[in-house]
Design brief:
Shape: elongated
Structural class: alpha+beta
Oligomer: single chain
Number of helices: 4
């Protein structure tokens, strides 16, 4: 008897859930296609009744390109396209944040640095030349040559 009551309550719970389910919020697939090749090439696309759509094509594990779109809660269409390859994931879209522009003064100073060699004090230049000479002498020293072993 307990089993019958359990099954009956489960059926009633399902019937109640189905009756109270909001069908306006239900999205279903309108369009769906996929093509996967044995060599690794693939492509797919789908679209749902609530405006979500996506498509992608590529070579498995090496490269992919595609995009997706949906409607924001405010009703605005959001579209994102992307490329994924050896340089990483590279999305593009109006909704994505972008860095602020570089101020003109910074651009001007960077250009100045690029076009003008760095000034070194005469003492610093002299020390740098001495260091390079010492390095060359150590590399060419006879003691270094004598320590070489020849295997034959």
């Amino acid at each position: 008897m307990f089993r019958y009551m359990l099954v009956a309550s489960a059926v009633l719970a399902c019937a109640y859930a189905a009756a109270s389910y909001n069908t306006d919020a239900t999205a279903y697939v309108v369009k769906n296609s996929a093509d996967i090749q044995p060599e690794g090439q693939y492509q797919y696309q789908y679209e749902t009744s609530n405006g979500i759509a996506a498509q992608e094509s590529g070579l498995g594990g090496h490269q992919a390109s595609g995009g997706y779109s949906y409607y924001s809660p405010e009703g605005q269409l959001v579209q994102i396209s992307y490329l994924a390859d050896e340089n990483g994931f590279q999305p593009q879209g109006e909704l994505l944040p972008t860095p602020p522009p570089i101020p003109a003064a910074i651009l001007k100073s960077l250009e100045y640095i690029r076009t003008h060699p760095q000034y070194q004090e005469p003492q610093q230049q002299y020390q740098q030349v001495q260091y390079q000479q010492v390095q060359q002498q150590q590399y060419r020293s006879p003691a270094r040559v004598q320590n070489k072993r020849v295997y034959g």
